[in-house]
Specification:
With about 170 residues, the chain is α+β, with helices and mostly antiparallel strands. The chain contains 5 helices and 9 strands. A 7-stranded antiparallel sheet has the order 5-4-6-7-8-1-9. Strands 2-3 form a two-stranded antiparallel ribbon. A hairpin with a 2-residue loop joins strand 2 and strand 3. The radius of gyration is 16 Å and the shape is globular. The C terminus is likely disordered.
Length: about 170
Amino acid sequence: MIEPVNVLVIRDMRDVVVEGRTHRTLNFDLRDVLDALRTEVDALNWCITDLDCHGGDAESFCRRVDEAPAPGLWLSSSALRSLAANVDQVVDGTFLGFPKETRPESIAPDDFEANAFPQSKSRLVIRAVDSSCFEIFTKNAHIAQLLSKRFSDVCAANPIDFFATFVGEAS
């Protein structure tokens, strides 16, 4: 049986003036999402399957992800939080959270595909999309409440729009 899935999109933006031109940019980053979901994030181990970020220790962080053996770089929640705190902006990235008791070798290759989230062993996926938004895939309905408390522009999305093989409806 597939658990109900919720998809949330965060788009909190701010205006930034550069050389006399106003640009809209995200008003938050991965560290803020992790902070808003602290208890839920801390219950998981994280696999980063792709990453593009800038500023601070970004080059080192990206290199660690690139050089990690497939499927990606495994981190504890505290290590992920520490790395995220030392990066200015996550442009693109996929962060898959698995229950701590799940052994990495027991996870099927498809479980590392964000698009297979409804059937996967992962409990939470945080995906940065082209510096334009963060998508959150969760099997915990409480996550929506936590994000809405922290961010002003959180929208629920239809899981069918994200998961081609999704069967069932989100709660």
